[in-house]
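Hypothesis: this fold can be encoded by more than one sequence.
Test: take the structure tokens below, design a sequence, compare later.
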């Protein structure tokens, strides 16, 4: 399990999640994503960040099995803080972040892409927030950046998913391509951004964040409060134990 970081020509920094079997990130993995984004932004040579994944899918959210192995609330607290830091670091990264989605993007994965600046997805990609099935809440803030308001509610309450093609119709996914062309397409787009004057691009990123109608950091933190309530009530543990008992690997 690892987060892999490399720098391509002309300032394209690549951050790759590689946590088999389904890229359900452990607590440290979320903090590592946050660190990678902050380091990218602090490096004047970085002009754009490409966030991608190896394996079956982009991201399956929090590693629930790890959380249930940890005694007390430290696993929950770590995952919640780690997700918050990762999402915040992506949003506040001084350069554009392109999320490159293959296969599934679930739960915390939607938090990652929802706070990124552009999304390119494979034609088999799908997105969803199955939190209510796990007795938790979260990432509605980020799903709201991808779908219209009533669709958000329908998806959230039902825990159903939406295809990349549908999101492309809404304009929230920039491009949908065959999986074997995904990286090529993403790097071509990244190169277009990297070719711009980095002083202007960094100013543009800050300006666009400044005119956002919703404070995504505060909004997500508000959601997390309800997750803590459900945990203190014992509801979330029931659902997570059920998930672990089924032996599933995907949080859906």
């Amino acid at each position: 399990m690892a987060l892999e970081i490399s720098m391509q020509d002309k300032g394209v920094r690549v951050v790759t999640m590689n946590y088999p079997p389904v890229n359900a990130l452990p607590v440290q993995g979320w903090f590592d994503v946050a660190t990678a984004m902050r380091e990218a932004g602090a490096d004047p040579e970085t002009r754009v960040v490409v966030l991608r994944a190896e394996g079956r899918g982009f991201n399956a959210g929090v590693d629930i099995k790890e959380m249930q192995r940890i005694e007390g609330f430290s696993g929950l607290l770590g995952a919640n803080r780690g997700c918050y830091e990762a999402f915040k670091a992506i949003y506040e990264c001084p350069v554009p972040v392109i999320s490159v989605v293959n296969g599934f993007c679930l739960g915390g994965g939607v938090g990652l892409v929802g706070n990124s600046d552009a999304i390119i997805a494979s034609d088999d990609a799908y997105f969803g927030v199955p939190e209510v099935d796990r007795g938790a809440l979260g990432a509605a803030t980020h799903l709201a950046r991808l779908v219209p308001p009533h669709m958000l509610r329908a998806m959230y309450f039902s825990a159903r998913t939406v295809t990349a093609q549908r999101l492309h119709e809404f304009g929230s996914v920039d491009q949908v391509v065959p999986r074997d062309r995904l990286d090529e397409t993403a790097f071509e787009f990244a190169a277009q951004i990297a070719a711009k004057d980095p002083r202007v691009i960094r100013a543009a990123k800050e300006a666009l964040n400044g005119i956002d109608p919703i404070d995504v950091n505060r909004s997500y933190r508000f959601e997390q409060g309800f997750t803590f309530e459900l945990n203190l009530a014992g509801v979330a543990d029931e659902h997570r134990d059920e998930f672990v008992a089924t032996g599933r690997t995907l949080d859906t």
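The first strand starts at residue 2 and ends at 7. The first helix runs from residue 27 to 42.
Hypothesis status: open.
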